[in-house]
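Wed. Picked up where I left off yesterday with GAF domain-containing protein. The coffee machine is broken again, so keeping this brief.
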Amino acid sequence: MPLYEHLRAPLRMWYANMLQAAPSTPHPRGDATVRVGPEGDTDRVLLIGNGPLHGWGVSLHDLAVPGQLARALNERSSRSASVEYVGDERMNAASTLAWLGNRAAAGHDLIVIALGMNDALRLTRLDDWKRDYAAVLDRVLSDIHPAAQVILVGLPNIRAYAMANSSAGSVAQLHADRMTEFTVELAQNHPRVTAVHAPAEKFEAARPLGSPKMYQAWAEALSIHLSPVLETIRAAKPFADETERRWEWAGTERAVRAASTTDGRSPLDEIVREAQEMFGVSLAAVNVLDGDRNWFVANSGGAPSSMPRELAYCNETVAQDRPVVVPDSAADDRFKNNPFLDVVQLPFYAGIPLHSEDGRAVGTLCILDGTPRKASAVDLQRLQVLADRAERELALLAAGTRAASEEQLAPA
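Structure written out below (tokens, as returned):
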């Protein structure tokens, strides 16, 4: 084992603290699919990963890599381009299969995997990362249509990012270089897989976390590699599959859409801010669980738009349909090997189930903290009062009877 890997424990904590300190940093929320061009002949690209794909510094996927790449591909081919993004800064290689969930890759012509930046920063054991990364590639290859291809993008220049321009970043860069070497080796063993180096990041001095201009340059550089591959794929006339998400609860779609437009000013946002202040925790959230996703329809800062249901504390709360308290996830067999919790380092959880109009548990109000606590440290009766308010707000959203929600959902 290289000597630098002895720094794994402090770097994992450094990364978790960095995530918890970044709730006010702009990042995209809402629909992660961007289409450019008219209906009809369309190049469909699926992006899987984190790092540059996450979109720090901008608030819309249209301004981040998905939108910029769709425009770059459209300009190069004159065909429509649809780019879908699956991932989040908190998604590591070990949790990627869960993030993919039941999403089918068969409807895409080209799958681009740019995965590993947080694993590099956290010094994930290389053998573990190789195993998990290879499993992601195997899953994708087993699902794509016969003419589709896969592009593996190497790790970015870690030191180019302001938050990693330090001695810790230098250590992470050593790890990232070894990870990139593996992506090249992996591609050599698969005829439908190509490895490319990550485009250079061109940060603007006034926007060191990321900007539309930076993501545009990154996407245009990547499109140089992708366009010839797409031309080859199009010549084979691949199967195209247009599918729409099916919601298990009618209220989920309204709640998710409202979450992307409220800008932190909805009644649900007020409730989670009250919960965070009342219990002195790192994060409070209202969630709706639907299909294979846990949707954060309101949170006090820093949570993604959604995450895999199977990795969420709240999946247990909804399944049991009763309050659940986890004093320390590291000491709980249900969660101690959870890769998402390993990244975010939020070991304490308390959640109250929220119900639909027919009495079915469909979501939660929950609080999470970066330090373990005793179960008795949280007053569940006080949390229940807030949960009752959240449940009423979800009911209003589901019924379409909240005036503010109707305005938010009205067409522009």
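Quick read: The chain has two domains: 3-235, 250-409.
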